[in-house]
Amino acid sequence: MQHVAAAAIFNDRGEILLALRPAHAHQGNLWEFPGGKVEAGEEILTALKRELREELGIVVSHARPLIRVRHDYPDKAVLLDVWRVDAYSGEVTSCEGQELEWVAIKELAKRSYPAANLPIITAVTLPDVYLITPEPQDILVFMSTLERCLSGGVRLVQLRAKSLDEARYRDLAQQALDLCRHHGAQLLLNAVPQLVQDIGAHGVHLSSEQLKKLDARPLGKDKWVAASCHDADELAQARRIGVDFAVVSPVLPTPSHPGAACLGWDKLRQLTSATNMPIYALGGMRIEDIGLAHRNGAQGIAAVSSVWNLRSDVIL
């Protein structure tokens, strides 16, 4: 298996650098995220910095793990260790003659890539924080708090309201969707997939019970499909049906489930390293845990109360 260190390099406009593979190379004439081979015994970050210096003439000053992708092509197996690079010195230059282009995130899906690069596009599109709403007690208070969270920087929301009947959930979903659109955020419904289509929400979040009953992805690629998972078997099922990202829980103890068995960070790291999709850590998560989640292979954190109760001046 060829081990590669790759980078999602962001500029100050929020664009990402893509490189076009040479026609004669494996998967030639396709766009990719820059990087190169990890030498035997070489640390991944060391390899990444070396490759970007040689390939692009830049010196990385801030990078963190983004996603790990294993992929088997008919003629080659690859392991991509992908890092997000937010700061570097030097001017990006095509040192090896490859075509380079800065691309806005919303334009990434219009390019053609080697199959191993596709999960990276999902990872760079998703934020660090996935808010799961608590059960609504008072709709006015609920909407006011959602507004505060969105103003504080939340950009991905799951509307979870199991206590509401179908009609009341639909009404709340429409209100929440209008508010999310106003803030440039995306709303996933913890409901039947058809409701997503009916009101034009951004996607569906499947419970583990729903996930187990499906044999195909329930929505098209123009919508998010996420799922709740608790172990390797459920993550494997999520991959089989084409889920975009998963939430894995419980990572740490939570007041809502006292005494429940927890995965811990080590087990989470094992699950993320074996899964070619972004994973959010759920269970006992706080904003301060985002960096720890990244270091253990997660996209970020999913949370209810710790995000729902954020001060209005907090910007994520």
Distance between the termini: 37 Å
Trace the largest sheet across and list its strands: 8-9-10-11-12-13-14-15
Helix share bin: 25-40%
- Main sheet properties: 8 strands, parallel, barrel
Beta-strand proportion: 25-35%
Judging from the principal axes of the Cα atoms, what is the shape?
globular
Uncertain runs are none
Rg calculated over all Cα atoms:
20 Å
Task: Summarize the helix and strand pattern as letters.
Answer: EEEEHEEEHEHEHEHEHEHEHEHEH
Mean pLDDT: 95
* Number of E strands: 15
The structure class reads: alpha/beta
Q: Please work out how many helical segments DSSP would assign.
A: 10
Account of the 3D structure:
This protein has 316 residues and is of the alpha/beta class. The protein contains ten helices and 15 strands. The chain has helices at residues 44-56, 118-125, 139-151, 166-182, 193-199, 208-213, 232-241, 264-273, 290-295, 305-308, and strands at 2-9, 16-20, 31-32, 35-37, 59-72, 77-89, 100-103, 129-132, 156-159, 186-189, 203-206, 224-229, 245-248, 279-282, 300-303. The radius of gyration is 20 Å and the shape is globular. The relative contact order is 0.12.
Keywords:
10 helices, 4-stranded mixed β-sheet, alpha/beta
Short description:
The chain has 316 residues and is of the alpha/beta class.
Please outline the helices and strands:
Elements: E1 2-9, E2 16-20, E3 31-32, E4 35-37, H1 44-56, E5 59-72, E6 77-89, E7 100-103, H2 118-125, E8 129-132, H3 139-151, E9 156-159, H4 166-182, E10 186-189, H5 193-199, E11 203-206, H6 208-213, E12 224-229, H7 232-241, E13 245-248, H8 264-273, E14 279-282, H9 290-295, E15 300-303, H10 305-308
Helix pairs in contact: 3-4
